[in-house]
Design a protein that fits this description.
The protein is α/β, with parallel strands linked by helices and 541 residues long. It is built from 15 helices and 25 strands. It binds adenosine-5'-diphosphate.
């Protein structure tokens, strides 16, 4: 017997029309070098309709990849809707990638047109001769003092919009499995791989930002997405904000901690989200600003140190809400809720739970498996295995099937490359990424856990642990440590601090003090760079 409900496609067109119809009075604030711009959602929606016409007038083909090379702005949000709602595929290019990677990605995706913020032109323009498929560049003038080359391929965003009539009627996407957007993994191993989101996956995923055991976006919220829109869809916040009808504050190009803090306070932001490094930068600057409206700081992308989350709780009044995911998982796959166990817990136990990656989001399935045999492992909080996941917004393969067949199991689950334990309540604790584990004498040392303990030292600003080859033990951990300004720390003092906190054989064999932990294009600790830097390092015997 068949169900008798309407079979309506899950499509981002719904997100657009809902925002246009119900939330026209809401506002989108965008900070830019030219000052702050406030756009009512009603005006934004008309601009999305004009942009739809522009894509047609420029002859952008029916399912073309529409590249964006932009900061978090209201203009970028116009592209976020106009491209998919007209059947094209939004391709967010990561502005922090190395030029060769950027060229590889744009060519691989066969981008036809690229929309670029004026302030970012100096990064993109030197590459144009290598971008084989791009026919047009549309410059979004964000007021930056950057010369625009005199080139027939370049057009001005505002001029194009002004000359275009708004698209009339409703946008229609019939096939919910049609591609809506693309994003490449940052390529920490091998070439970047293309993840292709469908209308269905993007729409379902946006709902996760609305659930109360998550960011819980509501119409009364003011949301500041700090996580870049060029990285894993800014964690679904842009579409989620439009669905919920929140006000939105976009930081534009100025991503300094002081600028973020200023926006949080001045706009009475209630929900924000970004990687831990952002919040590590903001916290020391908090000094009397009114952050009383803030209720949720969504944090993920790399492990959220317990010390960071608790320091936020102490100083600002709320801990972080941790989430785990990957580009391949849209990205939200787990949420750091304290599911069902809060009553009996001490504050200390709650802090421990918050430091875990959390429980699978509704509709997402998780399991841990033996990486060799594939055998499923128990959720006893002790047995660690490769974390695998399945669900309607988890990738089933990479674009053109390239580069990652091995990352999917025979029964269709994504192999995440993360190693985790899961407790009987389903709460995931990441032990490490497979390639970052330190293999010492046949046992694994979790670099993440060691880093978290090191970062709990009051004199430590940042720390990363990498494996150094060792004759007897195969590998031993080395700690690369950044000391807070005005503080001092010796290797012996650090080891003494760590001794009661970790197993003896986990204690680092070497401590190197560095000025800064190198970061990847999305602001995570780049252990690869550190490993390269310390290649050939010989441990004290
Ligand atoms: P890349 O693989 O290039 O870093 P992604 O941005 O897709 O690109 O990163 C996904 C990875 O980030 C995950 O596999 C995991 O290792 C790490 N990660 C994401 N969220 C968390 C978290 N809350 N705690 C620990 N690690 C995380």
């Amino acid at each position: 017997m068949r169900g008798l409900m309407q079979d309506r496609p899950l499509s981002l067109t719904h997100v657009f029309h809902r925002a246009e119809q119900l939330f026209g009075h809401k506002k989108i604030v965008t900070a830019s070098p030219a000052g702050e711009r406030v756009t009512p959602v009603a005006d934004w929606a008309v601009r999305v309709r004009r942009l739809a016409t522009v894509l047609d007038t420029l002859g952008v083909s029916a399912d073309a990849r529409v590249g964006t090379f932009c900061w978090n702005t209201d203009r970028h949000l116009e592209l976020y809707l106009a491209a998919p709602c007209t059947g094209r595929v939004l391709h967010t290019l990561n502005i922090r990638l190395f030029p060769e990677q950027l060229v590889y990605i744009a060519n691989h995706a066969e981008d036809e047109i690229v929309f670029v913020d004026r302030s970012l032109l100096p990064l993109l323009w030197p590459l144009v001769d290598k971008l084989e498929t791009v026919r047009r560049y549309v410059v979004i003038d964000d007021g930056a003092d950057v010369e625009i080359p005199d080139d027939p391929r370049i057009a001005d965003y505002e001029e194009l919009l002004a000359a275009a009539e708004p698209y009339q009627g409703r946008f229609v996407v019939e096939d919910e499995n049609a591609a809506a957007a693309m994003c490449y993994t940052s390529g920490t191993t091998g070439n970047p791989k293309g993840v292709v989101y469908s209308h269905r996956s993007a729409t379902l995923h946006s709902l996760i930002t609305l659930i109360s055991d998550g960011p819980g976006l509501r119409e009364c919220d003011v949301v500041l997405p700090v996580v870049p829109m060029f990285h894993a869809n800014a964690w679904g916040l842009p579409y989620g904000c439009l669905l919920a009808g929140t006000d939105i504050v976009f930081p534009g190009p100025n991503m300094t901690p002081s600028a973020i803090l200023d926006l949080l306070a001045r706009h009475r932001v209630t929900v924000t989200g970004g990687v831990p490094t952002i919040w590590m930068g903001v916290l020391p600057l908090v000094d009397g600003q009114d952050l009383g409206a803030l209720r949720t700081v969504l944090c993920g992308g790399s492990a959220v140190p317990r010390s960071l989350s608790e320091a936020w709780k102490e100083k600002v009044g709320m801990p972080m809400l941790q989430a785990w995911g990957m580009t391949e998982t849209s990205p939200i796959a787990t949420l750091g809720v304290l599911a069902g166990r809060t009553d009996a817990l001490t504050e200390d136990q709650r802090a421990d739970l918050r430091a875990r990656q959390g429980v699978a989001a509704p509709l997402v399935e998780l399991r841990i498996a033996d990486p060799g045999t594939g055998e499923e492992l128990p959720w006893d909080d002790a047995t660690s295995g490769e974390l695998q996941t399945a669900g309607p917004w988890i990738a089933k393969e990479y674009y053109r099937g390239e580069g990652g067949g091995a990352q999917f199991t025979e029964d269709g689950w994504l192999r995440t490359g993360d190693v985790a334990v899961v407790d009987p309540y389903g709460s995931v604790k990441l032990v490490d990424r497979t390639k970052d584990l330190v293999k010492s004498g046949g046992e694994w040392i979790s670099s993440v856990e060691l880093e978290n303990e090191i970062m709990a030292h009051p004199a430590v600003a940042e720390a990363a642990v990498i494996a150094i080859p060792h004759e007897k033990w195969v590998e031993r951990p080395m700690a690369c440590v950044v000391v807070r300004p005005g503080r001092s720390l010796t290797p012996d003092e650090l080891i003494e601090f760590l001794t009661p906190r970790v197993a003896k054989w986990w204690l680092p064999d070497a401590v190197e003090f560095i000025d800064e932990v190198p970061k990847t294009s999305v602001g995570k600790f780049s252990k690869k760079t550190l490993r390269d830097k310390f290649a050939g390092y010989s441990l004290p015997s």
